[in-house]
Here is the input.
Amino acid sequence: MYEILEKKILCPQIKEIVLDTPAIAQKAQAGQFIVIRIDEKGERIPLTVADYDREKGTMTVIFQEAGKTTQQLGALNKGDFIMDVAGPMGIPSSVEKVGTVVCVGGGVGSAALYILLKAFKKAGNKTVAIIGAKTKEFLFWEEKIKSVGSEMFITTDDGSCGRKGFVTEELESFIKKEKCDLIFAVGPVVMMNAVCRVSEPYKIKTIVSLNSIMVDATGMCGACRVEVGGETKFACVDGPDFDGHKVNFQLLLQRQKMYLTEEKTILDMGKTNEERECRCNNE
Ligand SMILES: Cc1cc2nc3c(=O)[nH]c(=O)nc-3n(C[C@H](O)[C@H](O)[C@H](O)COP(=O)(O)OP(=O)(O)OC[C@H]3O[C@@H](n4cnc5c(N)ncnc54)[C@H](O)[C@@H]3O)c2cc1C
Ligand code: FES
Here is the structure.
């Protein structure tokens, strides 16, 4: 059993919890995820490691309440217990000194940015954060992210904070004025696809963290399969990071739609897939 040591409500439907997971905290690295099961009848769901403290033996996750399990998790409080926490899973992000690294986060995907930027900064890179949300009230961890970024840009759909518009517009502005050696994008599939379309003509290597539907997260079931460079890969064991310019995003979107249970999609801050696609096609 794993105790919830802290719980915070960050934004509408987005919560942060700190878990007592000493063994996982010792090994967790940027880019990895955990799989939790709340109780014996619960479903397993993957959540990105948003932060960890090796000394305290804790790990932080940020989640958006999208369906049954994330809502059930959101209803738990400090002092409550989760039955299973497995991890860290997935291949850690490849962190090297390359020059200037721009990390782009969309919606709850920004949860991955803090430890990613921290790792790139520690490796000697100039780190730039671009975070996007629907409105000001859906932004979180700005100060924390700013503390590990040489520069930080915010975009909101309605202009209530930072630039009015999308992360892709801010990214393109940055690429046009400064040297950029590597881009990392974490967020809704449509947003990661749009980031790749912006960076491709500039030939800037772009890594995306794929949030495919996962069932076992151990490479056995094939639910998370994605096509990368014409080959089938499993996001849970071969990823979740992949070269975004080689990902077949259309196939990934089709697979995600197969499991849609409601109009709204998780990680997409209240936009329907059609709205996002329409927006992406217009970009
Ligand atoms: C590697 C990885 C890391 C993730 N990290 C985070 C995280 O840090 N924070 C967070 O909030 N979420 C994260 N997710 C997504 C999270 O796992 C799903 O939101 C969760 O499984 C939904 O479970 P549920 O029972 O609450 O909702 P369900 O009832 O299963 O689904 C509710 C809605 O969400 C959609 N959905 C379910 N899973 C996904 C998914 N993987 N991608 C897109 N849409 C999905 C469904 O189609 C449905 O529309 C991650 C996913 C992966 C694969
Ligand atoms: S989730 Fe089953 S193979 Fe990846």
Summary: DSSP finds nine helices and 17 strands in the chain. The first strand starts at residue 2 and ends at 11. The CA atoms of residues 201 and 245 lie 10 Å apart. Residues 100-282 form a domain with the Rossmann fold fold (CATH 3.40.50.80).
